[in-house]
Specification:
Layout (H helix, E strand, L loop, with lengths): L20 H7 L8 H18 L7 H12 L4 E4 L6 H11 L4 E5 L6 H5 E6 L4 E6 L6 E5 L6 H13 L1 E4 L2 E4 L5 E6 L12 H4 L4 E3 L6 H11 L14 H10 L7 H16 L3 E3 L3 H17 L7 H12 L4 E2 L1 H5 L4 H9 L16
Parallel strand pairs: 1-8, 1-9, 2-5, 5-8
Antiparallel strand pairs: 3-4, 6-7, 10-11
Helix pairs in contact: 2-3, 2-9, 3-11, 10-11, 11-12
Length: 358
């Protein structure tokens, strides 16, 4: 059980008195490079963050795990869901658990690019211009209803997401690390909105839906928040800078040659499918590869399984696809089409996971 406290990066600790079964199994596979301490560390920190978030957010363990994976990649997340289901609370809780700065931006038609990036303001006392940081200069940013702002403002945010910096009057300002943008869209109210172009949606690592809670989960929410706000007493369990350092270690997670071929078979199948007018881009392939590495490390493994790719197909790839006109006429969803494309792709056998990728 992880304790809700900040964990110093240099501390070496095991998950249990003996190694977890997943890591022990990986050690038995020949040819797998085992960054043992790093994998244990990622798993321990990941569990600490998830358990801390669960003290406030009820029943969204899977969504929380994917958000932590996005931080490790690192990448940004688009959440498409109805209002009032805890998107803002989830972002605040994640920021508090990491001891990170948090900024919520309510996107409206009158929001300007300078509001996002910042601007230079003349200071009469010093008789010089000084930089006033924009709303995006925080470690975790909630871009609420991103499709309600104009294209120029959307582009300012998306450029900052991609470059991890903003440039004002020729001066470049680096964004803090870790840096995660959680952008939301309301799928049921589209009047007066500016839908994100497909090329810009492709810049998000994942697209998620939080979803309504179950009946018992909603009962727990009522009891948990009726007397006080648990977020006020939430303590950080890890420094944001520590998570950034751990992000680099996840690149050592092993992906066998057969699994690389499996990933490439999936992406090529989307490009050949008649149900799609646009398949997965190379950016999408890399996103699936890196996210699978981070998900495996969060679960205490130093190697990727086919199940990791399959579990991440919809959140990482679906929003990068465009249905053909025939598929739209048949009222097929992107998720249905993607799964039907991937199902016939042969899955590598277990013995091949231990083969060296290079």
């Amino acid at each position: 059980m992880c304790v809700a406290r900040a964990i110093p990066l240099g501390e070496s600790r095991m998950l249990q008195s003996s190694k977890c079964r997943a890591v022990a199994a990986a050690e038995s596979l020949p040819g797998v490079a085992m960054p043992q301490l790093d994998v244990d560390r990622v798993h321990t920190v990941g569990r600490a963050i998830q358990e801390n978030v669960a003290r406030v957010i009820v029943g969204k363990e899977k969504v929380t795990e994917l958000l932590v994976a996005a931080l490790l990649v690192p990448g940004h997340v688009l959440i498409e869901d109805v209002p009032g289901i805890g998107k803002t609370m989830l972002a605040k809780t994640l920021a508090r658990s990491l001891r990170c700065s948090f900024q919520r931006i309510q996107f409206t038609p009158d929001l300007l690019p300078a509001d996002i990036t910042g601007t230079n303001v003349f200071n009469q006392k010093t008789a010089d211009f000084e930089f006033r940081p924009g709303l995006v200069l925080a470690q975790i940013v909630l871009a609420d209803e991103i499709n309600r702002a104009g294209p120029r403002t959307q582009s300012a945010l998306l450029e900052a997401m991609e470059e991890r910096q903003v440039t004002v009057d020729g001066v470049t300002h680096r964004l803090p690390e870790p840096f995660l943008v959680l952008a939301t869209q309301n799928p049921i109210e589209l009047e007066g909105t500016f839908p994100l172009p497909e090329a810009q949606v492709d810049r998000f690592l994942m697209r998620l839906a939080v979803g309504y809670p179950s009946r018992e989960e909603e009962r727990t929410i009522l009891h948990r928040f009726v007397e006080s706000d648990p977020l006020l007493d939430l303590a950080a369990v890890v420094q944001g800078a520590d998570l950034t350092a751990l992000s680099r270690t996840t690149r050592a997670v092993h992906v066998s040659r057969s699994l690389e071929n499996y990933l490439l078979d999936i992406t090529e199948a989307t490009r050949r499918s008649e149900a799609l007018s646009l398949g997965v881009s190379p950016r999408g392939s890399l996103a699936l590869y890196r996210t699978a590495q981070c998900l495996a490390a969060l679960r205490g493994r130093a190697y990727v399984l086919p199940d990791d790719f399959q579990e991440l197909l919809v959140p990482v790839l679906a929003h990068r696809l465009i249905l053909s006109s025939q598929a739209r006429l048949r009222e097929r969803t992107l998720e249905e089409v993607l799964r039907s494309i991937v199902e016939p792709v042969p899955v590598p056998v277990e013995e091949s996971w231990s083969e060296k990728a290079h």
